Amino acid sequence: MAAAASNGFSACLSRPMAEPSTSYSSMASPSQIRFVRKPMKNKRLVSSGRGAYWNLNCSLASEGLVQSEGVDSKALAASALQLLKTSAANRYTKEKSCIVAIGLNVHTAPVEIREKVNIPEAQWPDAIKELCALNHIEEAAVLCTCNRIEIYVVALSQRRGVKEMTEWMSKKSGVPVSELSEHRFLLFDEDATQHLFEVASGLDSLIMGEGQILSQVKQVVRVSQGVTGFGAKISGLFKHAITVGKRVRTETNISSGSVSVSSAAVELAQMKLHESAYTTARVLVIGAGKMGKLLIKHLISKGCEKIVVVNRTEKKVAAIREEFKNVEIIYKPFSELLSSAAEADVIFTSTSSETPLFLKEQVEMLPLVRPEIGRRLYVDISVPRNVHPSVSDLQTSSVYDVDDLKEVVSANKEERLQKAIEAQVIIKEELSKFEAWKDSLETVPTIKKLRAYVERIRAAEVEKCLSKMGNDISKKQKQAIHDLSMGIVSKLLKGPMQHLRCDEGRSLSVALENMKALNRMYDLDTETSVLEEKIRSKMEQAQK
Fold this sequence. Notes:
By secondary structure, the protein is α/β, with parallel strands linked by helices. The chain has 19 helices and 10 strands. Strand 8, helix 14 and strand 9 (376-380) form a beta-alpha-beta unit. The termini are far apart.
């Protein structure tokens, strides 16, 4: 069979490698380069909120009981209950919506947890709709790669939103809430925004500066655009993150010399093979998507001259073969997966299959590799994993997944760390711009309320005028009165509307002050907050 030809890795030596490490900080994590914000272990943020909240009210009620001797106990109990309800209502209606980021990534959770929580790209639109159907979630987006599953939402209530998101993730994945809470990260507002900017810039990647993550952030926008729930704030956040990612790569050149997950997988395979086997190892790549193509590209850069590719269709393999004409690339259908694996020494897997392609009982039946190879090598960069974990129990196989890529560290890591510090300066600038844009949206409800308030007065006064004039008025005269009223309103609103917008040199703080002044003057702050209206509407829709 053609796959049996013994051409593989070239004899070139791999780059010098750092000592293996699994610590977050040793992999050039954001904690090394952030000066303002550090992600918290945030289990306490959620689990303790409810207890502290109720205990405070109970203690206040108790104090009232102690100090009010001689007062009827039933009346006291009723007043304490009323105090509790009023306090809760006030806090609830005064809450502001916030951006929440919740997720698991290569720094916080092992692959066996991440693969359970993984959401395939085809399911992102449905996930957004399901999240936004929750009572306290208004907008949502899903970012899912082999190294991370992150959900970004606009929550109408921070505590309730986090609770609903966590329970949704648990129900979707089958992972208990307690286990999710142990491995998740949880960030709010500016911290959530900064995190996504760092992700798009490659600062939070397993290997700092890798370029594929920016394409994955762009894919979130492409897939989610037009989906109900991918609203103004979240879409604005992701689009700004793309701008930040581009600017960081242009101005710092952080991607120069960096490795991607695919190239790290190739280097890991080189590290694990005996040096004498570099030139003779038979290579099999399963999957010809983006990751598979990158694997083939990096294998060729290391001197690999013959690669067998298993894929569902030949079209993508033919396109890759056309691009790399000097290399023998052999296509095999999925029906020949096991027979191709039997003739391979090194197997790379990179498919979106939700079930393992290699099970222990199947691998046991494969023939042994040549003595100079030692064990058959599986490098699985798929999430969920394509190679079942039990395969690693076999004496004839060595299995590595994406988490094992931590062992591969780029030779120019220190240089990129310096560039990462430069990138943080850019991120800080862009963070200020985004926060200013987000805050400017606060004036929109006031603009709408003011227009509605003035329109109610205009319509009522026109109606009053027409009723006094009787039935003798012509249609043309009615239209003239209507036009006159609209013109007066438009001219009166022009000044206030201009002063609610952040333009013509007007700062955000001035616009917000003007907004507060208008709210006071025209009594635009209704008893029911905007958030409460939205929540009530969502609850009513859920009951239909």
